[in-house]
Specification:
The protein folds into 2 domains: 37 residues; 82 residues, no CATH class. With 120 residues, the chain is an all-alpha fold. It is 64% helix and 0% strand. α4 packs antiparallel against α5 and α4 packs parallel to α6.
Length: 120
């Protein structure tokens, strides 16, 4: 076959790939814009599942209960292997050594460090 013929075949294949990519992008867009789509938190890792809307500075904000759930999940993960690290992390941010002693504005920093535990 000639080089021109080969090039035409490759261009046809490339155009078909483009159409498939556009179709896939449209399907993903429809999926996430539909009301039946699952909530974003359900598909995320436990560390990111509790994030609320970002604060003014762009960092996520968390409630005490969300942070408590994230800490508990991390402490229980891998058969409790990270429990001591989670306790040390809470002590690092808390004056009294418990979650109630951590100011809410420190929750994003705590969660960011919590995500690293077990992933390093």
């Amino acid at each position: 076959m000639s080089k021109t013929g080969d090039l035409l075949i490759l261009l046809d294949e490339l155009a078909e790939c483009g159409r498939k990519l556009a179709g896939t992008a449209e399907a993903v867009r429809k999926y996430f814009s539909s009301e039946d789509a699952p909530k974003a938190g359900k598909a995320q890792s436990p560390e990111k599942a509790g994030a609320e809307a970002p604060a003014e500075d762009g960092s996520p904000s968390y409630s005490k209960e969300q942070v408590r759930k994230l800490l508990s999940a991390k402490a229980a993960a891998d058969d409790g292997r990270h429990k001591a690290q989670v306790k040390e992390l809470v002590k690092k941010y808390a004056d009294g050594g418990s979650l109630k002693d951590i100011p809410e504005d420190r929750y994003p920093d705590l969660v960011a460090e919590l995500e690293v535990i077990g992933n390093a």
